[in-house]
Amino acid sequence: MGVDEREGRTGQERLGKENSHEDSFMSMKKLFLAFLLTSQTIAASVKDTRQRVVFWNLFTTGASHQVITQLVQQFNETQNDYVVVKSDIPYRQLHTKMLPAIAGRVPPDVSILDRFRVASYAARGALLCLDDLIGRDGLQAEDFFAATWAECLYEGSAWAVPYDTDVRVMYYNKKLFREAGLDPENPPRTWSELRDCSRKLTVFRRDNRLEQTGYLPIYGNTGLYLYGWQKGGRFMSEDGQTVTLNDPRIVEALIWLKDFADEYGVENLLTFRSGFGADAQNPFVTGRIAMVVLDVGELSMIQRYGRDIEWATAPCPYADDGEPATWSGGFSLVIPKGAGNAEGGWAFCRFILSEASQRTIATSSNKLPALKSASKDSFFQQSDFWRLAIDQMEISHYRPVSPVGAILDTELNTAFDQVLHNKLSAQEALDIATQETQKSLERFLGEEEGTPVSWPLVAAFLGGLVGIAFLSRACLTIRRVRFMKLGKKQAIAGYLFALPAILGLALFMLGPILVALTYSFTRYEIISPATWVGVENYRRLFSEDRYFLTALWNTLYFAVFSVPINISLSLGLALLLNQPIRGRALYRTCFYLPTVMPAVAGSVLWAWLFNGDYGLINVLLSYTPLPEIPWLTSEHWSKPALIVMGMWAIGGDMIIFLAALQGVPRSLLEACDMDGAGPLRKFRHVTLPMISPAMFFMVVMGIIGSFQIFTQAYIMTAGGPVNSTLFYVLYLYREAFENLHMGYASAMAWVLFLFIMIVTGVQFVFARQWVYYEGEKG
Amino acid sequence: MRRLRSRAVPFAIHATLLVLLIGFIGPFFWLISTSLKLESAMFQLPPQWIPNPATLKHYALAFTDFPALHYTRNTLVVVVFSTLGTLISCSMAGYAFSRLIWPDRTLVFSLLMATMMIPGQVTMIPIYILFTKLGWIDTFLPLVVPAFFGNAFFIFLLRQFFLTVPEDLIEAARLDGAGEGRVFLQIMLPLCKPALLTVLIFTVLRSWNDFMGPLIYLTSEKNRTLALGLAHLHGVQGTEWGLLMAASMLMVLPALLLFFFCQRFFIEGIALTGTKA
After folding, report:
1. Percent of chain B with pLDDT over 70
2. What are the E-state strand segments in A115-244?
3. DSSP H helical segments within A663-736, as ranges?
């Protein structure tokens, strides 16, 4: 699972941690809105001769959104050279938007970027090196918290400037401590103390399920990173050339975690965790966990909803034979290469890095400023909570800065997952993770030399090829048609009617597809120029790819079950809803409803429905003698869960069948009735053949569609657990947009394409056997 | 005996439908109920079905904080034009691939089908670059213009439906001297109304809910569509659940109304000439 999920966090929970406005913010918001309104009208009346600076902002909700809007406003009002035009981008979609923009040479002038991603972009030449600007304007690294500045450096140069930062601390529930007979002023400092405490704070329910735990090794904003560092391990060598995920100390940390989890039973823990909610239902504020490591950004949520739990914070407990450690993540500002107005972008960066702005950012949104001096503000100094946070910045680490950072992260999570589910030992899992990441790294570093793809040449070649094929075919056809005796009018009409489609094919579809084919023979990292690698991508896909077969298997499994099920269900529904019963208009609308819902709402809905503890489905099951099923947390049930979810959205298919059923001539059906045929025979011999064209469509499209299943897995399961829902296109997407291996992903796409084409071709051949087109000659 | 039977069947049908209905729209009720709850009550487990206390504040916010009307206007522009484009180009092409015979028919059809078999993720960047070269970024053009050039999915669908129109009917018309244009407009289209309506509903819905397209091609706030606006509510520092649910509801309603209105025409026995009932 990508680290995309949260700023600088490796999310292990899904429905957790949502911040909300503080009440005190409401009035500030109103004031600020009034401010905005008045200043807007004034500004509008003055003609703007300043240079435009396009700024992409990722903070679209909450306090951080207000702060950045306010800062942009302030910047625009306090100087006369530039005007910043802010564009809000949904956080989760930054890559989808940024990568094409850079590839298409229309990037913004300055943008917010997750610090974690900076190395990835920098290594591929997508960012402007800021060394000169930093030197010219005298910014000093020492003025910033070490972890924030260092994460912006790659190969000795600075490619970003930090915007803010967070840090992880342990929150603990004093009330629960007292109840368990522990000293609330003395939280655990080491791992052994932690486990000890946890044991005393754990309460089981009658049915042997967990009611309350002390500390949950599979929950919290830690990743395997925290534990590895606390053991004194390192994830990568200093020079960034060697991946060391299997550092013996990290292996020990993982073993310790597994051991800890086993004490409660992994299944137990997973089910317990899936019952966690957000905000008011956050497990910490509702007293279900006594201790948890979260970042300081959770403060407002905890202050707001945790009034009666008496919480406090402490440094994260570290290994007895290790060292105190924590880690930070956060955002940064970058100037993409090719930005139209780099100076303007930089001016905005300087403004954000000023002490005043840093104070504003941090105090308004529960973050620490990146600038050390801003942390001297009394807001921080007068609070135990913040003083602890600032202290912890001294020992704060940051995730490995590397062009393969995303891959490293995924491999680490996978390893953790595998060990937790007893698939591999800690050593094995981390060895594999290390190998895979190292391979990727070496591939990246090694393939920097290769013949660059000259796109004008490729375009000319492809264009020429298509052009020649098109023209020669056209000439042939014109000749044929000219000499046609019969059917000439029809032939010409055919071409005319199909003209928009033919043009569309040529202009919008063939071109891009051929380009994608070209990609598959290159190494193309989207934001860096492509180089030729011949059939290397295909070779690797078939011989070295560890997930290729898994992805294929998952996809086939899904297709084989969902297509027949969906077709039968939608046909059944259509049949029922074609009957002259009362209220069928209403029924039809209701069954169509799910197709109309936006994907976000739908996925959240189903994630809740499948919840192991309180999901509606399991609640219903509990009333029957059947056992409850850990749907989305089980590798065996995750695909069935998605198949069930797919059944929900058959409204569209139902309509197609309804339309088809309209076309069944009533005269035929009446003739059947008169001959005394029962409903079943009528169905088999009249209805079915008459709707077989539509049926054929459904089967073909169903297969094409199910082979490309992506969205649900992307939103709900991220391919897990243990890659059981890693569908082919999800894997492809990850390779393309998260790991930036567009060339490889294109090869994957073409393999899929061949596969689907063969399957579809076969279906068209067999269509003659069972599809009946009325009135077809011969 | 006959009376019992004629009452039992509708009853059985209703019973089955109602059971299935619960499964289908139950979750939808959760959506409504969540949109009416206060934030603190939203994720309570076990969940409460009836919001208590209920609040309309999210809906109010949907119109003040979230420029619903403005986004709707943008969305409508995209929807209307892309639907128009799709209907015109796809019905024409559907006819061409079903009841017209021309030399390259199979070739072009195969190519068309082939375009559906490539995952969009890999063609995304070349298409995007094409549009940058045309200067269409941050306009509605990339979302609307391609619709006028056909869409493999709908062409295939309409082809299948057009193939159910009896050849004799068309032959008769041709023999009477009707040009292909007349055959198309006066025979094919009227006889395939349900299919066309299906395409209408699908297209309207697709572009109404389309998120990827607007995300990639639209940048400025003034061009934003509803689906994109919704995605903004799912932010970095938390999701505005209340607003998200209320806005989702508002998005769902027009689509539902459209469907409800259109499906009136899916009634068996629509008056048509010819051999069809």
Report:
1. 87
2. 153-154, 157-158, 161-162, 164-165, 168-173, 203-204, 210-215
3. 666-675, 679-682, 688-707, 711-712, 728-733
Task: Say how far apart CA A279 and CA B93 lie, in whole Å.
Answer: 53
Chain B residues near residue A601 by CB distance under 8 angstroms: 31, 244-245, 248
CA distance A455 to A166: 43
The CA-CA-CA angle for residues B86, B91, B96, to 5°, reads 130
Query: With 60 as the cut, is the pLDDT of residue A32 above it?
Result: no
What is residue A238's predicted lDDT score, i.e. its pLDDT? 87
Query: Which letter, b or e, does each residue of A639-655 get, where b requires 16 or more Cβ atoms within 10 Å of its Cβ?
Result: bebbbbbbbbbbbbbbb
Q: Which residue has the higher pLDDT, B256 or A158?
A: A158
Q: What values do phi and psi take at A178, rounded to 5?
A: -60, -45
| Per-residue DSSP letter, B71 | H
Contact A387, A322 (CB under 8 A): no
Please tell me the predicted confidence (pLDDT) of residue B277: 35
Going through A428-583 in order, the beta strands assigned E by DSSP cover 522-523, 531-532
pLDDT per position as a tens digit, A134-190? 999 999 999 999 999 999 999 999 999 999 999 999 999 999 999 999 999 999 999
The helix-helix angle for A23-45 and A62-78 (nearest 10°) equals 30
Residue A21 clears pLDDT 70, i.e. is over it: no
From first CA to last CA, the distance across chain A in angstroms is 56
The CA distance from A691 to B167, in Å, is: 17
Chain-centre distance for alpha carbon A652? 26
Q: Which residues of B touch A694 (CB under 8 A)?
A: 160-161
> What is the pLDDT averaged over residues A184-208?
89
- Whether residue A768 is predicted with pLDDT greater than 90 in this model: the reply is no
Tokens representing A463 are 């264009």
Residue-level length of chain A: 778
Determine which of A3, A6, A17, A18 to mutate to test the interface with B (most B C-beta atoms within 10 Å).
A18
Q: How far is B183 from chain A (nearest CA, A)?
A: 11
- Asked whether the bond before A721 is cis by omega within 30 degrees of 0, the reply is yes
- Residue A530 sits at the chain B interface (C-beta within 8 Å): no
- Rounded to an integer, what distance in angstroms lies between the CA atom of residue A750 and that of residue A755? 8
Q: In this model, does residue A516 exceed pLDDT 80?
A: yes
Reported as a pLDDT band with limits 50, 70 and 90, residue B267 is: low
Chain A residues within 8 A of B113 when measuring between CB atoms: 760
Residue contact A90–B235, C-beta within 8 A: yes
Q: Which among B16, B26, B264 has the least Cβ separation from residue A585? A: B264
- Is A36's Cβ below 8 Å from some Cβ in B? no
* Alpha helix (H) residue ranges in A205-328: 223-230, 248-264, 266-274, 299-305
Which residue of B40, B130, B201 is in closest CB contact with A511? B130
DSSP string of A250-263? Answer: HHHHHHHHHHHHHH
Return the ∠ at Cα A533 (arms to A529 and A535), rounded to 5°: 140
Cβ distance A53 to A341 under 8 Å?
yes
| ipTM (interface predicted TM) | 0.83
Q: Hey, are the CB atoms on B194 and A578 less than 8 Å from each other?
A: no
Please, is A485 exposed, middle or buried when counting C-beta atoms within 10 Å of its C-beta (0-12, 13-18, 19+)?
Answer: exposed
Cα A377 from Cα A387, distance rounded (Å): 11
Q: Does A279 touch chain B (CB under 8 A)?
A: yes
Please determine, for residue A36, whether its predicted confidence score (pLDDT) is greater than 90. no
Confidence of residue B45 (pLDDT cuts 50, 70, 90): low
- Is residue A310 a contact partner of residue A174, using CB atoms and an 8 Å limit? yes
pLDDT exceeds 50 at position A404: yes
Give chain B positions within 8 Å (CB) of A652: 202
Determine, for residues B146 and A281 on separate chains, whether the beta-carbon distance falls below 8 Å.
no
